[in-house]
Amino acid sequence: MYVVESKGGAIVCMLFSLFFLGTWPAILTLLERRGRLPQHTYLDYTITNLLAAVIIAFTFGEIGKSTPEQPNFLIQLSQDNWPSVLFAMAGGIVLSVGNLSTQYAWAFVGLSVTEVITSSITVVIGTTLNYFLDDKINRAEILFPGVGCFLIAVCLGSAVHASNAADNKAKLGNLSDVHKNGTGAGTSVTIVETCPNAVAMKDPENGTGTKERAEFGTAEFLVELESRRSIKVFGKSTFIGLSITFFAGVCFSLFSPAFNLATNDQWHTLKHGVPHLSVYTAFFYFSASCFVVATILNISFLYYPILKLPRSSLKAYLSDWNGRGWAFLAGLLCGFGNGLQFMGGQAAGYAAADAVQALPLVSTFWGILIFGEYRKSSRRTYVFLVGMLSMFIAAVGVLMASSGHRK
């Protein structure tokens, strides 16, 4: 099998992983804003996410000659390595629950803030655990200041969302009574009746529509967006979105340490003479458990939806081809992104590989470019946003600088 051994090769894996993992959330957000049910999207996503793991296992995991110390993927499938397999599967379960949670969090607090908070929690908890699991191969005097930068980014991310939410509330408050049904923080917008132009406005995300187009950042744009999206957020509490986001962050903080235990057996759960799971075998089991959990939960959500989403069915899902190709692409990007992160982490330490949690730098770029996030916001929001991104840039550089070398 192919093994990444150099620090340079590990960093290349991390950089590709960073781009892939920062891009796939933008694709799923795009589909939700076009009105596709998240249950349909996530079921499509899980299929190609598992496919990516299978491709990696049968290519990188089968390249070269198999040895007793480093057996190829197919040989490891028949070995007595179930303690490590269970760790890998546990990592896949928490990742699946975390990814599922972020689908709903994106609608409430936006792509950028969701990714910043979840990634920062992942680094603060997950990187600390990986540092000790990896027998401290990363330089603590460099690593932990980077973790501190991520922690500051969490606080700034929450401030960005609170400030931007206040900006949006003020914009909606300036709409005339003709455009609103009710007043105050719990205002609900009746799209078809109160904003007839919303149907005629051009969709800024898929290029369809007629003559009129709401400008990014305006109250009319927010009303139009609410009319299209599958998850309605007007009148919902900010606390709901942030609670989902923090829960997802805790889930994400556990998957990498679990994968670390699966591939390096720090707790000595394997029998004597049984080789450690390779990255590719562990990633296969990791993705398989992720697929099973996601499938069960999303099929349940088809018939018993949450957050007042409309009910659906397997028949409706199978016939829904609107955006299916994009959902398949998102699954591939996430799958290859996670695989590359683990390949880099096995070489340079999983704590250093958590530098890919700077994916909000990529997600924020897509959020601003595609979704018009933070357009026409207040100066206070921009100050918090710049501070948040600056902390991320500093954290990425510091974490990569802490890279070690696994013996």
From TrEMBL:
Its main location: membrane. One of its GO terms (molecular function) is ATP binding. The chain crosses the membrane at residues 6-30, 42-61, 81-98, 105-130, 142-162, 238-262, 282-304, 325-344, 350-370, 382-401. InterPro entries: UPS_plant (IPR030189), Ureide_permease (IPR009834). It is a multi-pass membrane protein. It comes from the Eukaryota. It is found in: Membrane. Keywords: ATP-binding, Membrane, Nucleotide-binding, Transmembrane, Transmembrane helix, Transport. GO terms for cellular component: membrane. Belongs to the plant ureide permease (TC 2.A.7.19) family. This is Ureide permease 1-like. It comes from Ilex paraguariensis.
